[in-house]
Design a protein that fits this description.
Blueprint: H1 4-13, E1 17-20, H2 23-30, H3 39-44, E2 48-52, E3 56-59, H4 67-78, E4 84-86, H5 92-98, E5 104-105, H6 107-114, H7 119-139, H8 149-162, E6 167-176, E7 208-217, E8 220-221, E9 224-229, H9 236-255, H10 262-272, E10 286-288, E11 295-299, H11 305-308, E12 318-321, E13 324-326, E14 332-334, E15 337-341, E16 346-348
Parallel strand pairs: 1-4, 4-5
Antiparallel strand pairs: 1-2, 2-3, 6-7, 7-8, 7-9, 10-11, 10-12, 12-15, 13-14, 15-16
Helix pairs in contact: 1-6, 4-5, 7-8, 9-10
Length: 362
């Protein structure tokens, strides 16, 4: 049977037939996980799930980029009656083939289903995060003067697949951040450009690195972020930035409980940072995670508090907290913590050192 929360939300949204072409959505709804492949091959061998109120079908049509595959998908949907919803159109020909059924967007339905994780799903995300952290144990000693960012990426990829990862969801980011925004290049927001793609840049002593990476384990994502200093201990200003980050993160965690809202989390972060938003203006202070590395809910977006006060957290909701403390002219500190909402608060799923910064009591 398809995931109970998927069928529950189909009923709530009045959807009779749910067509899933996104591999992560197929895995979530049916438990069928796509194997890791080269992207072109994966696109040609993707599975499709057709979920009805009481059953589901997973099949692998001929390439959905071609007429035969699109016709096979349309024929399978034609056998089902009622309101159709689809998560994504894999090709223009697939869109043309399904157009007569006038499918509605499945995103709201899937978002509502995924926003609360079952205990088993929480443990799957915890396992994915632990695998990610184990890979970082391999990479961290390699981040020394003379190494290249691409060397770290190669080591990370080798480690995650040797440890059994199903795929890579976030291309590893090893941003070397300058002390001042003026030295970082132009951005539309006027703030620090982050994230930047990995290059063959050579690391040097004293570089401050914001890193970020995520993997997939049997359909469930992880998210890892820390700040490293290459071959040097943090100075007093950098330690102070870290302590302020800890205080901001702790304020967010105190605000997280069943019934609190996404806006409550953003307000707590802002208050802990003296009234200034501790996150990049083009991002947010927290986001959900599950079958995607970033999914609902989001806290601190440009939608504003009125909208985010309508996003209510529940037991089983998972958030990735990622505040940033930035003192222009002196750089900053960024890290990520994954937390799950419990019956009376929240619990961390992340379990990793903050070296070379001092540990702080939450």
């Amino acid at each position: 049977m398809a995931h109970p929360r998927v069928r529950e939300q189909m009923a709530a949204f009045g959807v009779d037939v749910l067509v899933l072409c996104g591999e992560n959505n197929v895995a979530y709804a049916t438990g069928r996980v796509a194997r890791s492949q080269e992207p072109a091959r994966a696109g040609a061998t993707r599975s499709v799930a057709i979920v009805t109120r009481d059953d589901h079908l997973v099949f692998q049509p001929p390439s959905l980029d071609l007429d035969d595959g699109a016709r096979a998908l349309a024929a399978a949907v034609a056998d089902c009656s009622g309101v159709v919803a689809i998560d994504e159109y894999p090709s223009v020909v697939a869109y043309a083939a399904l157009r007569e059924r006038a499918p509605i967007d499945a995103a709201p339905l899937l978002s509502q289903a995924k926003i609360v994780k079952t205990p088993d799903e929480v443990e799957r995300i915890r396992a994915a995060q632990r695998l990610n952290e184990n890979a970082i144990d391999i990479v961290r000693p390699l981040a020394t003067p003379g190494a290249r960012q691409t060397d770290l990426t190669a080591a990370f990829f080798r480690a995650i697949f040797e440890f059994g990862a199903t795929g890579n969801t976030v291309d590893p980011i090893w941003n070397i951040v300058p002390p001042s925004i003026d030295g970082a290049g132009f951005t539309l927001t006027g703030h620090l450009p982050f994230p930047n793609p990995t290059t063959d840049r050579v690391l040097t002593t004293g570089d401050v690195m914001f890193n970020d990476m995520g993997i997939d384990l049997e359909g469930w994502a992880s998210d890892f972020g820390r700040t490293w200093i290459i071959e040097r201990e943090p100075d007093s200003r950098q330690r102070d930035q870290f302590e302020r980050w800890c205080a901001t993160c702790a304020a967010c965690e105190r605000a997280i409980r069943p019934g609190s809202t996404a806006a409550d989390v953003a307000r707590a972060a802002t208050a802990a940072n003296g009234g200034a938003r501790p996150w990049f203006p083009h991002l947010y202070v927290a986001h959900g995670i599950g079958t995607e590395s970033a999914e609902l809910p989001f806290c601190g977006t440009d939608l504003g508090e009125e909208i985010e006060d309508q996003v209510v957290l529940a037991q089983g909701t998972i958030l990735v907290l990622e505040p940033v403390i930035w003192d222009d002219g002196h750089g900053g500190y960024r890290a990520e913590e994954i937390v799950v909402v419990t019956a009376d608060g929240c619990e961390r799923l992340t379990d990793y050192t903050y070296a070379p910064y001092e540990m702080s009591v939450r």
